[in-house]
Specification:
This protein has 670 residues and is of the alpha/beta class. The protein is built from 17 helices and 32 strands. The longest helix has 25 residues.
């Protein structure tokens, strides 16, 4: 009989010879095979499941059989009873012992660094390597012959069982340690951050550790609660940013602080409370406690970044728009007054520039344009449009002051995207009659006075504003100058006189939605600012086109890219290469939560990005004026859609805002 056996682990391909009777888990660890285990081989967690591959493997020079592992044990049977799960042909690596040559497959769900797919257009992979890990240990009880302290014996157990060295313990853990050790009968689960910092201890075996990824937007705050051991998103929640009451856009909040000393303290308090509310909501949804959250990652624009950290944002209100810090920030949950575990490891991604924040860094981390040859444009559309353009050779970033029009503010019938808001619009080219859909009601309204649509309409949100103005342009209701054609009032009752200008009646009911000349102008100003920022970066790279466009943010996720192209929000690009990136900033936060190595990556990328300040660039103003026209001065309309037909150009079109006003005055006088 042989005294040892050959073992090959797949998919890693690592192999070695081991004495007969060696546990599979022990063999895997000695070879550095990526296999999970929290309980230290006590058959409690069940994470070390493996599968014995059967057959002849000439490549490995092995004939592998299930009989080359020890028989199914009573411990494994007990695990199935307790967990009420079947191993279904698998074995627990800590229980199965090697008795002959075998090929052992480690399934994806048994790997520590298994891949988690982030659902989205590009299906990014997230490698699991969280900052916080759980370790189950049995601590030697004290006796008269071993006078060492409980903490020292806990460290010794972690070093012996898990090879953890140079351990440090957070002070807040120490006063509770003796009670926890005795309550757990000297068996405890320890949370260790970054390989050496003990941040929490629980009696007995604790199976999961939670983390929260948070996108702190100026309008909304969104959070995803994740299991750090599996990468699964267990719950998601969002709420309106309570700072809105201090100002709808970022600069108005900075102005509030300037005019109200101490206003920043109040705004800091409410945003931290909002995040704590999300912690409570997410953990309650899965039956956990807020104290179970041991890691938090956040992304935010520069103003929100500063207010969250308790930094006065006044310096961001004027040139040179100096950040207090552009580096990643690390602290504990208690230092931000969050209701997580007091020692929760908080990580706020780095900012790129004075108006290009950690949220844009999150978009870059999620999209990784630095790995591509294609010239990629990333646009996070909000009250401030944050823009990144580049590829693996070079990346540039800037910010454009689009204002809140895209979110329904400063629009006569505008509102946030909520039930009752018109979000999709089509206008008949001949009759000028509209059809629309309303959030909360998925059907199109062929008759605007249809009772369900009439009683449900409360306003129009950003995506609806974009579509109605684009449709008005395509139907000839407005010209390339953005002027509503009053002559059409003789053809349709939808076009009505409104003082010295004209308006378009989208919906006439309990709540009338009328698109005014000022509404059109507000969208022109917003889209011109966005387009001008993009053109400025294109000038720096000396390019006239981009290969790929990704629209991020809540607004970017819901607009139809055809209409974005019609209005000239974005530069000309083949529409098949224009898509939504969803909440890419939040995805970046989630990547940084689940893989600590990504934190080094994003800091390196941020340092490589070239910052362009639009406020001091004369060409920004030039591009802004040219972009006021619809769509913009250099538009070529590449294959938009079969359903879109362009109106004949106006004989009095002008690309400049000032010229446009002069031409309108001439028409009015005549």
């Amino acid at each position: 009989m042989t005294t040892d056996a050959k073992v090959v682990f797949t998919p890693s391909g690592r192999r070695g010879r081991f004495p007969i009777g060696t546990p599979v888990l022990e063999a895997a660890r000695s070879l550095g095979v990526d296999i999970d285990s929290v309980c230290g081989g006590r058959a409690i967690c069940g994470r070390c499941q493996v599968l014995c591959a059967e057959g002849d493997f000439p490549k490995h020079e092995i004939v592998s059989e299930a009989g080359h592992l020890s028989s199914f044990t009573k411990t494994e049977e007990r695990w199935e009873r307790v967990k009420k799960k079947s191993l279904d042909g698998r074995r627990l690596g800590c229980q199965a012992r090697i008795e002959g040559d075998v090929v052992i497959d480690v399934p994806p769900d048994s790997q520590v660094h298994r891949q988690v797919i982030r659902k989205g257009a590009d299906l990014l992979d997230i490698e699991l390597n969280p900052l916080v890990h759980l370790y189950y240990v049995e601590v030697q009880e004290p006796d008269m012959h071993s006078p060492t302290g409980d903490l020292q014996r806990l460290k010794a157990a972690l070093e012996y069982e898990w090879r953890l060295e140079n351990l440090h313990c957070e002070f807040s853990v120490i006063p509770k340690l003796q009670r926890i050790l005795r309550e757990g009968d000297w068996k405890v689960t320890v949370a260790v951050a970054d390989g050496g910092n003990i941040i929490a201890v629980w009696p007995g075996f604790k199976e999961q550790v939670l983390g929260l990824a948070v996108d702190v937007g100026s309008t909304t705050v969104a959070a995803h609660l994740c299991n750090l051991m599996t990468g699964d998103v267990l719950a998601s929640n969002g709420l309106m940013n309570p700072q809105i009451r201090f100002g709808e856009d970022l600069m108005s909040r900075v102005s509030y602080v300037m005019m109200n000393p101490g206003g920043d303290v109040e705004m800091t308090k409410v945003i931290r409370q909002a995040i704590s509310e999300l912690v409570s909501a997410c953990t309650e949804e899965i039956g956990a406690a807020p104290e179970d959250v041991l890691a938090v990652t956040l992304v935010a624009n520069p103003v929100m970044h500063h207010l969250l950290l308790g930094i006065d944002p006044i310096e961001l209100g004027g040139a040179p728009f100096a950040l207090a810090t552009d580096e990643a920030t690390r602290c504990r949950g208690v230092e931000l007054d969050l209701n997580t575990h007091a020692n929760a490891q908080v990580y706020l991604l780095p900012c790129i520039a004075g108006h290009v924040g950690a949220d844009t860094a999150g978009v870059v981390l999620a999209e990784r344009p630095d790995t591509m040859e294609e010239l990629t444009l990333l646009v996070d559309v909000g009250t401030n449009a944050e823009i990144v353009l580049g590829n693996r050779h070079r990346m540039l970033a800037c910010s454009s002051p689009t204002g809140p029009a895209f979110e329904g503010a400063q629009i006569s019938g505008g509102q946030r995207a909520a039930p009752g808001a018109i979000e999709r619009v089509r206008i008949d080219r001949d009759t000028l009659e509209p059809r629309f859909s309303v959030i909360g009601n998925d059907t199109w309204s062929d008759n605007p006075d249809f009772v369900t649509a009439d009683t449900g309409v409360t306003g129009i949100c950003g995506s609806g504003i974009i579509e109605v103005i684009a449709e008005m342009f395509l139907a000839g209701i407005i010209d390339t100058d953005g002027v509503i054609n009053g002559a059409l009032s003789e053809r349709s009752e939808r076009v009505i006189a409104d003082g010295r200008t004209f308006s378009y009646v989208l919906h006439d009911g309990d709540v009338s939605i009328i698109i005014t000349q000022n509404d059109v102008r507000q969208i022109q100003l917003a889209k011109a600012a966005l387009y001008a920022g993009v053109r400025l970066l294109m000038d720096r790279l000396e390019v006239d086109t981009v290969d790929r466009i990704r629209l991020a943010g809540a607004f970017g996720s819901h607009i139809d890219v055809k209409y974005a192209m019609v209005l000239g929000l974005i530069p000309d690009c083949d529409l098949k290469n224009v898509s939504s990136a969803g909440n890419a900033a939040g995805s970046g936060a989630r990547i940084a939560l689940l893989n600590k190595n990504a934190r080094e990556d994003i800091q390196t990328l941020v340092n490589q990005v070239e910052k362009v300040e639009t406020a001091v660039e004369q060409k920004f103003q030039d591009h802004f004026v040219e972009a006021m026209g619809i769509p913009h001065k250099t538009a070529t309309f590449p294959r938009l859609s079969e359903e879109i037909t362009l109106p004949a150009p106006s004989s009095a079109n002008s690309v400049s805002d000032s010229n446009g006003r002069r031409s309108r005055r001439r028409r009015r006088r005549s």
